[in-house]
Amino acid sequence: MTVKEITDILEELAPLSHAEDFDNVGLLVGNPKQEVSGVLVTLDTLENVVDEAIQKGHNLIVSFHPIIFKGLKKITGSTYVERVILKAVTNNIAIYSMHTALDNSKMGVNAKICEVLGIQNPKILIPKSGTIKKLITYVPLKKVESVKKALFDAGAGDVGNYSNCSFSTEGVGSFMPGEDSNPALGQKGSTHYENEAQIHVIYSFEREKAILNALLSNHPYEEVAYEITTLHNTNQDIGMGMIGALPESLDEQSFLLHVKDKMNASVIRHSEFLGKKVLNVAVLGGSGAFAISAAKKAGADVLITADIKYHEFYQAEKQLVIADIGHFETEQFTKDLLVDYLIKKIPNFAISLSESITNPIKYL
């Protein structure tokens, strides 16, 4: 398989279009047409990870964090980033990063945290805005079902656990074919009236190109009339963080000890205990101070995240407990998630979980 064939599979889990604007995701180093001898999955791409890939004979590294965040003006080996890039290029190793694309996936980083902690029925905590679009088009009655099927096959009409969702109204359309036209219906120079259906379907924004291709390829008219609007509806499938419930409530200390054990956390920094039972838990892997307000609004008893600053703990405001368990600790199981996913999608292929230590933080 080529690099692109494998990264296409990864993008089924976490489309790159779902990443945040500030991020740098996708293929950062390497040729997408290169044949892959093996895949090494890591949280961070450091020199020891590249060395591990070389030792194992793998030439594609799938990394959660991108090794390149900003543009490089030179690559001389003077920084750890430059040394990684040089070593990867010298040894013909490709590097692919997923980062916030996977953060925003309903089966990504935060879903894995929920699985490890036993949090049930998790839902997106902060839905990503502007991700749902609506297509309206006009189709002759005889072609309605075939056009709808093409749109559904391309990914339109998915609403939560339902698919093939649409709405249609019937009416009469009119048009006059011009001299240079090639009409499927009607005659040049004469106004034609056709019984049509107005079809409404919604879709996730990353599917737009495929859906428009399906529409234009399957619609009988030479000129296809359609409208696209962006909706403000909440998208339950794309967004940061998750919130769900424990199987049974626990007191605050018992719950944080449970988190410390399951997440292999050396220490947990937290806001004051409120003397309440913990049932509803919000999680956000990585730096999650921006989720405090959403967690409170959603009724979370505890927010599990990382990188909380001194004054940000005050934002708990006796409404919930904020627990900072460490950046690495919140994201560490992402590697297992990706390895399991790839093995399921491409069994009998060389896929390895990196054994290299990449956590830069040590505890005394």
From TrEMBL:
<feature type="binding site">
    <location>
        <position position="327"/>
    </location>
    <ligand>
        <name>a divalent metal cation</name>
    </ligand>
</feature>
<feature type="binding site">
    <location>
        <position position="65"/>
    </location>
    <ligand>
        <name>a divalent metal cation</name>
    </ligand>
</feature>
<dbReference type="InterPro" id="IPR017221">
    <property type="entry name" value="DUF34/NIF3_bac"/>
</dbReference>
<keyword id="KW-0479">Metal-binding</keyword>
<protein>
    <recommendedName>
        <fullName>GTP cyclohydrolase 1 type 2 homolog</fullName>
    </recommendedName>
</protein>
<comment type="similarity">
    <text>Belongs to the GTP cyclohydrolase I type 2/NIF3 family.</text>
</comment>
<feature type="binding site">
    <location>
        <position position="103"/>
    </location>
    <ligand>
        <name>a divalent metal cation</name>
    </ligand>
</feature>
<dbReference type="Pfam" id="PF01784">
    <property type="entry name" value="DUF34_NIF3"/>
</dbReference>
<dbReference type="GO" id="GO:0046872">
    <property type="term" value="F:metal ion binding"/>
</dbReference>
<dbReference type="InterPro" id="IPR002678">
    <property type="entry name" value="DUF34/NIF3"/>
</dbReference>
<dbReference type="InterPro" id="IPR015867">
    <property type="entry name" value="N-reg_PII/ATP_PRibTrfase_C"/>
</dbReference>
<dbReference type="InterPro" id="IPR036069">
    <property type="entry name" value="DUF34/NIF3_sf"/>
</dbReference>
<comment type="subunit">
    <text>Homohexamer.</text>
</comment>
<dbReference type="GO" id="GO:0005737">
    <property type="term" value="C:cytoplasm"/>
</dbReference>
<feature type="binding site">
    <location>
        <position position="331"/>
    </location>
    <ligand>
        <name>a divalent metal cation</name>
    </ligand>
</feature>
